[in-house]
Amino acid sequence: MLTPLAGSMFVFAPLAGRLADRLPARVLSSVGMLVTAGGLLGMTSIGVGTPYWEIALWMVVVGAGSGIFNSPNTRAIMGSVAPEKRGVASGTRTLVVNIGAVLSIAFAIAIVTSAMPTNVMVEIFSGVSRGLSASAAAPLISGLHAALLLMAGASVIGFFFSVLRGNERDAYAMRQSGLGLVGKQP
Predict the structure, then answer these.
(1) Which 3 state secondary structure label does DSSP give 122?
(2) 113, 141 Cβ separation under 8 angstroms
(3) CA-CA distances (angstroms) from residue 20 to 33, 43, 50, 73?
(4) Which of 30-34, 107-111, 131-135, 170-174 comes out lowest in average pLDDT?
(5) CA distance 165 to 170
(6) What's the CA gap between 174 and 80, in Å, rounded?
(7) Is pLDDT at 73 greater than 50 in this prediction?
(8) From 3.40.50.150, 3.40.630.30, 1.20.1250.20, 2.60.40.10, which CATH number describes the 3-177 domain?
């Protein structure tokens, strides 16, 4: 059921990578953050009776935004580092991405489950629950909406950071002049 999210990332990441050869990473990454925020906001319309196709549509939007963001952002990071430091930069980037994913999932689950009665939470997350009433599912849906709104807000904040960052030429010029710490020779 999560295939639309991963599938759209799979499609949009290489397209954004190709566009990154022609457009500044700042522009593409910023657009990706806004698309992601829009998809997450759209997901707040999900309710108990929402058809799967609508959920899948919003997942496609979120996945597209992630794909549009990731390729140019990674390219900009790796392009701002001296070639002999790219292994360290790649490892650091992967570490930060994984830590962010783990913490955001834990945070989202805490928000989603905070208002749920324990017995309903156990039923839902153990997979034994079938056909919860709308009133029994209401705390789950409410928590989901709160988590999605916070994630959308984080994406909007990420958009502003993406817009305000320097461009690749600035990072390269700083590295070449020895003024930048990233990639500076000892």
Answers:
(1) helix
(2) no
(3) 15, 28, 36, 9
(4) 170-174
(5) 10
(6) 9
(7) yes
(8) 1.20.1250.20
- 3-state SS, residue 155: helix
Number of H helices, E strands in the chain: 7, 0
Asked if residue 174 lies in contact with residue 31, where contact means CB atoms within 8 angstroms, the answer is: no
- The residue to which tokens 């020779």 are assigned: 185
Euclidean distance between CA atoms 66 and 74, whole angstroms: 12
Residue with tokens 């593409």: 28
pTM of the predicted model as reported, rounded to 2 decimal places? 0.81
Interatomic CA distance for residues 80 and 88, integer angstroms? 13
What mean pLDDT do residues 113-119 have?
82
With beta carbons less than 8 A apart as the criterion, state whether 5 and 59 touch. yes
Contact 159, 34 (CB under 8 A): yes
3-state secondary structure 46-69: CCCCCCHHHHHHHHHHHHHHHHHH
